[in-house]
Amino acid sequence: MLRDLLEQLGKNNQLLHVKREVDTNLEMAAVINALDERPVVFENVKGYENFKVVAGLCSRRELVANALGCKKEELLKKLADAINNPVKPEIVSKAPCQEVVIKDVDLDALPILYHLQGDGGRYTTASIGIIKDPETGRNMSYHRLMQIGKNRFAARLVKKRQVATTYEKVDGDLEIAICIGNSMATLVAASLGPKPGVDELGIANVLEETPVVKCITKDLEVPANCEIVLEGRLLKEQTDEGPFVDLTETRDQVRQQPVLEIDCITMRRDPIYQALLPGKREHKLLMGMPKEPTIYNEVNKVTKCTNVYITPGGASWLHAVVQIEKQAEDDGKKAIEAAFKGHGSLKHVVIVDNDIDIYDPNKVEWAIATRVQADRDLVVFRDQPASSLDPSAKHIPGQKSRSAKAGVDATKKSTSKSFEPVEYMTVDINEYI
Q1: Given the residues 199, 246, 377, 409, the one annotated as active site
Q2: Is 246 a catalytic residue?
Q3: Measured between alpha carbons, how far apart are the two ends of the chain, in Å?
Q4: Which helix (H) or strand (E) holds 266?
Q5: Are 374 and 407 in contact (CB under 8 A)?
Q6: Domains (range + CATH), the chain
Q7: How far apart are CA 388 and CA 345, in angstroms?
Q8: pLDDT tens, 46-89?
């Protein structure tokens, strides 16, 4: 749970504490950014004496891996295994997240951040929504929520994703529970987006034991150990949502989105509110990293894939490096096509051999420089469905965004001289200095 994670970070001297009073209106977001999103607890939140606020818990891949009990290099396989083998969580009758029950809802009582001048309003960002689809069952995913009243939000739903699909096909309101202040397992599982019918809470339960409890007013289950739960309904009523900063660190367009009405709030007696900076490290990691297992699975259908990295330089969404153990001359080209199947928003992908460190952009660039001929190794796909987050794509209201896509086969070729990097002898520098 979140509190165990904070305790672990504290023991490892990785958790900062801000004891002076900090305002949720612009100031707190600025402090989180100035700290380069290192894990932090705000202990004195202006106007919210009963709350603490945490941020930065997923800002680095090493933090996520450590919290899930593995090394950075092992994270991809751990997530892929959890997606493929979910375990139904236990339902408990009593839970810390329901120590306090509030039916006279006032969202102003929560320390929701106003992040940047020009935002459409106060936004929850580390907010995880749980619904039930009548055909495919439970779904858990992230949703940014813009407060528009005492008990109302504008909820951002992405078309063709599960919540939007369910919302569009049901008659009347769609029940939803919003969970804030979650364990690392829940945070990661909610970001994965597996195929319909795969329960993300079952994935979380593999990564870390995650019991659930039934909501007070809704036919939904939520993580028993989360900090705050907002029980509500997505109405058929629409309203403006935005502007707000998205993954590319640019402002997303204002859209007509559903109104979310909150009927009940449950929480711990001493709740911890969780914040996440839009467009920055934590947002990017939680968006990009979960697409790595889906690319990995698709590439493994055509050749042996050993690792995948959605790069921060590509806004942690549009660019990937895929490492393969090449077995045939055309494996690089096959891997390019498979990578685009594994992540539909991918714009550019580079395929490399096992001797290239995919986390080092200099090593990847070296592979391109020494192993690529553009007329032989560059693959271009014209006029493809693309991400709405790409500012350079073609965007027509009411239509799917379109973009050209490209893959670079930066693997060694049998038809050309293979340049291998040299390695100097390893020495213990302490013996010399």
Answers
A1: 246
A2: yes
A3: 46
A4: strand 255-267
A5: no
A6: 2-285 (2.30.110.10), 290-409 (3.40.1670.10)
A7: 8
A8: 999 999 999 999 999 999 999 999 998 899 889 989 999 999 99
